[in-house]
Amino acid sequence: MRTIPHWINGSPVAGGSDTIDVTNPATDQPIATVPMADSATVAAAIAAGVAAFDGWSQTPLSRRAQVLFRFRDLLLENRTDLAALITAEHGKTLDDAAGEISRAADSIELACGGPALVRGGTSLQTGPNIDTKSVLHPLGVCVGITPFNFPAMMGMMMVSVALASGNTFIWKPSEQDPGVCVRIAELFTEAGLPDGVLNVVHGRQDTVEHLIDDKDTEAVAFVGSSKVAHIVYSRAAAAGKRVQAFGGAKNHMIVMPDADLDVVADQLTSACFGAAGQRCMAISVAVVVGESAEPLLEKLQVRAGQVRLGAGEANGTEVGPVINRQSQERIQAAVKEAIAGGARAVVDRSAEAVPGFESGYFVGPTVLADVEVASAAYQEELFGPILVVMRVDSLNEGLELIKNHRYGNGASIFTRDGAAANEFERRASAGMIGVNVAIPVPVAAYAVQGWKDSAYGDTGLNNASWSFYTRPKYVTSRWDSVAGTDFGFRPN
Ligand code: NAD
């Protein structure tokens, strides 16, 4: 079985005797082992980042960008192989995994613009002969902790801007699908990134705590569940570190009475069930305004019933397995509990097995109606292909539901009415808003940013993170002429 190493100082490293298996979720078979870093390995990664910082931070911006340009090409040239790695460890379909690599490249393309984007400003004559300017310095060794669901893309949303700004980086990927992260680090080395600038260490809570607490790390970026995001946010803040921590979600889609229900049903089918619902921007609640709920449920019943569940590698699969057995059992139990609590199962494929893959962690598309607001099925992030359909009388009522939910990552509306769309855009309490777009993840030139318990900290990912990865310095300077030394350039 393949061993997935750490990547420290430009080389694979075996550190740590505690190893865990990486399992193919479609087969329940171990396909690789990965060492959990011991303390010496984490310290070695931090030391490599410290040692590389001076050289990288003083490398001209354009030379840093050239490395990113070369890496972007390698990323896309290797897209098929990288997608296969993701699919084997995560379970998502090959097309979906290839799409993830394209989104990762989008973040790198943003960072290729570093020479134009990493800059401060200057004001002339802020006093007599006084100019004031701001300059941006990189921080030092930055840390990124990423979730299992986008093993390549979330890391690239952090690494891209961090490196373009002149920082060095330690990436602690999810231990459940770490293979692609190490391959990405190899490609960075191939692209000419100096050793030690990007390091990958595998581990769990103790590794994360070490990375946060170490005096030589400067900033911590986290993406994962809200529970852990809050732990990381609090611990990093207590250690005096910069921190941005992105958490979970329960994204609502408002369906207005004038919406085209066929379009809505198609969009919901892919936005809720795609990647087995394991997207932080998946739609998991449809809020139908007025009388369209039953006709929409009829259409969803047909579509959810037709979605092809299967191994991510198999031709024609539309929905793969969830990440592990615990997730499968947790989601199946949540569906049972909702139905026992009075929810109507319009479609329940939650316990469906896939022929030939009976041991896989499959949960089929499921649509629940008549769900109580207080129920766990509505309040909690299930992170599976489960759609809750609610009915309300007005847009206001729908907006209230969104406002009162603890999460505020994304929200969307489907309507043909511009005024309703504007009202929604202004009032919906979420960081990413879609108007006739079900999964409104902004391009990298904007940002990924949640509200409420979906994000702790005030800077987003991608183009909103230049200030996170740099610290400003303000310089006030005064140059008066000294008699006899003005070389005749002064007018008087
Ligand atoms: P998770 O919180 O279990 O793990 C995330 C990372 O934290 C992993 O690297 C893990 O090893 C580490 N970790 C786990 N427990 C820890 C602890 N006690 N202390 C320190 N580190 C710990 O999340 P997951 O299951 O890998 O990912 C799914 C979650 O990520 C979902 O909630 C999803 O909504 C969220 N997510 C959010 C966004 C966003 O942009 N807001 C994007 C992607 C995923």
Q: Do you know the CATH architecture of the largest domain?
A: 3-Layer(aba) Sandwich
Radius of gyration: 25 Å
The SS-based structural class is alpha/beta
The chain-level mean pLDDT equals 97
Distance between the termini: 81 Å
Q: Could you give the count of β-strands?
A: 25
- The number of helical segments is 15
Q: Which overall shape is indicated by the principal axes computed on the Cα atoms? A: globular
Structure characterization notes:
The chain has helices spanning 39-57, 61-77, 79-90, 94-112, 114-117, 153-164, 179-190, 205-213, 226-238, 261-273, 293-306, 325-340, 376-379, 395-404, 418-427; strands at residues 2-3, 6-8, 11-13, 19-24, 29-35, 121-127, 130-138, 141-145, 168-172, 198-200, 217-223, 242-246, 251-255, 283-289, 344-348, 366-369, 386-392, 407-408, 410-414, 432-435, 447-448, 451-452, 455-456, 461-462, 470-478. It is built from 15 helices and 25 strands. It is globular. The strands form seven sheets. The chain has a seven-stranded mixed sheet, with helices on both faces. A six-stranded mixed sheet has the order 10-9-8-11-12-23, sandwiched between helices. It folds into two domains: 2-247 and 454-475, 3-Layer(aba) Sandwich (Aldehyde Dehydrogenase, Chain A, domain 1); 251-435, 3-Layer(aba) Sandwich (Aldehyde Dehydrogenase, Chain A, domain 2). 37% of the residues lie in helices and 24% in strands. It binds nicotinamide-adenine-dinucleotide (NAD). Nicotinamide-adenine-dinucleotide (NAD) is lined by residues 145-150, 154, 172, 174-175, 204-205, 208, 223-225, 228, 231-232, 246-249, 280, 381, 383, 409, 448, 450, 454. Its EC number is 1.2.1.27.
